[in-house]
């Protein structure tokens, strides 16, 4: 990458980060989408703008192309942060700020790369940018797929330390509700404490699905209790208590079987309700596009490409559900996504651009 493009990507990243494009700020999400669409004005591309339940999305295609061979997928929504995080700064070879690694810097790379490829006459790649990945991508990527957007392969630019993530866990959200019997706390023997019932159920579940080590985390199913509510008054035995579970399941597991097992572990007096389920993502390691991407990584970095599993979910699962193979491939940010000190390495960002460029030109 030449110095001009590098400076442009850094400048564009700063401009994107300045938008507080969080889920609770729809006007900023809309403004960020408008900025992206306007950025492509005057180029030989079609910019398609979509909205679903207030969520904006952008699809950029070469003129005359309706189904590109490859979609580059990214998102411009971010999680909440302090005001200072929306002013990007540079230090020690890093870009620091909300959304640097997750994932406005990658969006900037994809935008510049899309422009450069289109100006060279490259017609194999499209760009899909959505505004709700942090909330699950239902009104972004999944909606766009329901509207007929298709490709033969997809690369989501989520952070992956320049490794190819060909598998990612599915997501199952359950709600547990314990029902007891109300009584005055002066006579607890007359009641059945719903909080006690729920707490005992959560202990049984956590023992059956213990938190794995960091090394094994991407390979095994995990279960985390994420919310808990119960009781109505300080002098009343609670009649009801409720908790939600977030289960990240390995591709080999099945959500129906997991739900049945959770219900068995919870025991009598605990109702289990499915809130949502998203499929695990999987791409055949022998997929020709994956192999081309691996060769591109090796050519650029002069190191063998690593193909790994990823613990965190991404919008790739929606492509998997639609029958479109894809992988996560992105730069490195030291695991800082969503943190108060979120950052991305500039050198990693440059490599990300160069690998994608090499990949597309090899199609």
List its salient traits.
alpha+beta, Alpha-Beta Plaits, six-stranded mixed sheet, 363 residues, 33% helix, 27% strand, Aminopeptidase, 2 domains, four-stranded antiparallel sheet, single chain
List the helices and strands and how they pair.
Blueprint: H1 3-17, H2 26-39, E1 45-52, E2 55-62, E3 70-75, E4 89-91, E5 94-96, H3 100-119, E6 125-130, H4 141-146, E7 153-156, E8 164-168, E9 170-179, E10 183-184, H5 194-208, E11 222-230, E12 236-237, E13 240-249, H6 255-266, E14 270-278, E15 281-282, H7 288-301, E16 307-310, H8 316-321, E17 326-328, E18 343-345, H9 346-361
Parallel strand pairs: 3-6, 3-7, 7-17, 8-16
Antiparallel strand pairs: 1-2, 2-6, 4-5, 5-18, 8-15, 9-13, 9-14, 10-12, 11-13
